[in-house]
Design brief:
Layout lengths: L12 E4 L8 E8 L3 E7 L5 E7 L3 E3 L7 E4 L8 E7 L4 E6 L5 E5 L3 E3 L2
Antiparallel strand pairs: 1-2, 1-5, 2-3, 3-4, 6-7, 6-10, 7-8, 8-9
């Protein structure tokens, strides 16, 4: 698990660990600072709430085929693209937004974007 907030990108999906028996929740990063980030949550009725969450309580949401994504670890840190294919259960083929090139990356090193 990635423990610090250096990988956080606006409009990325994150999983917030539930506390005290609560379930994990999925939200979208809408702001951040040195201690944590603001996360937008939407309930079943499409009502939005924004909460501040410490970095140690969040982890990236894994991307699926055709999802927009951002690379959150390695030489191409913060590079955006679209998941073209999942080559096996560990790697994704990503079409990079900036260059249009294909790049193979571990799924654990990318995060789903809005």
């Amino acid at each position: 698990m990635i423990r610090s907030g250096w990988w956080i990108v606006l409009d990325s999906y994150v999983k917030v660990r539930g506390g005290y028996g609560n379930n994990d929740r999925i939200g979208v990063v809408c702001g951040f600072d040195e201690t944590g980030c603001k996360i937008s949550f939407e309930d079943a009725n499409k009502h939005e709430t924004i909460e501040f969450v410490n970095y140690d309580m969040i982890q990236p949401v894994e991307s699926k085929k055709q999802d927009k994504c951002v690379i959150i670890f390695g030489d191409l840190l913060k590079e955006k693209g679209v998941v073209d294919d999942i080559t096996d259960k560990e790697k994704a083929l990503i079409r990079l937004q900036r260059t249009g090139r294909l790049h193979v990356e571990y799924l654990k090193n990318i995060c789903k974007l809005v």
